[in-house]
Amino acid sequence: MGFPFTDNAPNLAAVVIVLFIASAIVFPLRIYIRLSKKVWGVDDWMIVAAVLPFIAFSSACLSGSFHGIGVRQERLTDDQAKQGLKVFFLFEILWCITVIPTKLAISFQLARIAGPKQFYVYILWAMSAIQTIVSLVALFYIIFRCKPVSYAWNTSTPGGHCEPASTLTDIYYAATAINIVFDYGCSILPIPLLWSLQMNANAKITVAILLSLGVLASLSACVRLKYTVALTNATDYLYSISNVVIWGYAEIGVGFFVACAATLRPLVRRFVDLRASSDKRSRQDHLNALPEDVQLASRLGGHENGWYGELKQPKVSTSEERLVPQGQEIVISKSVQQSSAGGGTSR
After folding, report:
1. Three-state secondary structure of 276-298
2. With contact defined as beta carbons under 8 Å apart, do 61 and 12 qualify?
3. What are phi and psi of 308, to 5 degrees?
4. Cβ(108)–Cβ(46) below 8 Å
5. Around Cβ 308, how many Cβ atoms within 10 Å?
6. Could you count the other beta carbons within 10 Å of the beta carbon of residue 296?
7. Please, are residues 100 and 132 in contact by the beta-carbon 8 Å criterion?
8. CA–CA dist 324, 145 (Å, integer)
9. pLDDT at residue 165, rounded to an integer
10. Mean pLDDT across 301-328
């Protein structure tokens, strides 16, 4: 009997697919920019270190949507429910593993921007150290809180037991709170940091906006915390944890995406420059294809958009001298004729 794919399971699958595709696009672009500009740094090694855990994390979350997570209890058999709990256990472990290098990549990236401004660097080191330590504590507690480990998803194991659920809940709260503070700090820090650097205003605004997108990760963590608290009173556990998985994945996925997208400004600037150059060439080619008189009128009149108005013929002036006999003398007679698009005169 196959697992039902209904209730909240499709929403979980959709979130994972969208964020993973977005991250899969910006990550190779980041690598290309860093290598082509020869500015490879520690933050790049961190995001590379996060790739394999992020792929495994994405696979576990997507697999959970097809193995009971997000499905109402009455639709699942006991064996299917155990399988769903096993996938959720894997989700918890991979979340703790993936969040560390992802957040460190953002932190090292900001530290690179801070440069000699040691005050900002010290703040980043402190936040990074606390976030890493709390995530490692949560990781080892989740793995070893039950003996044997399989008792975490199969409570029918003989002789098995787990530490009190309240302790795990407290660790959840602490880890989530630390990550929220970290995300907000990394979102706010670029604003005063960039403002003091020698960059043009447009560059400052662009980079600040990209880095401040990390606030979306903190919002995801806030929503996840809400659903984590609600788990204490949940009666339909596998259905309820689907929202924890969705927002937990969103937190990591958005963080990974922002860490990569914030480095793509040179590529965006190159695209804009090429677009402007292409538009300029297109206008010039269009102009060169016109008759010479229209080209001249366009350049003189500034009509570069293809609207030339009513073209007037240039003024023509002619002069003619004739020998006219008058009596015994020969007199030189001169006539001048002028014409324009508006009319002509002669005398």
Report:
1. HHHHHHHHHHHHHCCCHHHHHHH
2. yes
3. -110, -5
4. yes
5. 14
6. 13
7. yes
8. 125
9. 81
10. 46
Residue 233 DSSP SS3: helix
Q: Indicate whether 26 pLDDT > 70.
A: yes
- Where are the chain's structural domains? 9-263, 316-342
Q: How many other C-beta atoms can be found within 10 angstroms of the C-beta atom of residue 338? A: 14
- Report how many helices (DSSP H) and strands (DSSP E) the chain contains, helices first: 11, 5
Nearest CA among 315, 258, 268 for reference residue 43? 258
Rounded to the nearest angstrom, the gap between the alpha carbon of residue 172 and the centroid of all alpha carbons in its chain is 28
N-to-C CA span, the chain:
107
Tell me what the pLDDT averaged over the chain comes to.
80
Token output for 7: 């209730």
Tokens of 292: 């010479």
Q: How far apart are CA 60 and CA 85, in angstroms?
A: 12
Better-scored residue on pLDDT, 1 or 9: 9
Helix (H) or strand (E) holding 157: none
Distance of CA 347 to the CA centre of its chain: 76
Q: Which of 246, 191, 251, 244 is nearest to 215 (CA)?
A: 251
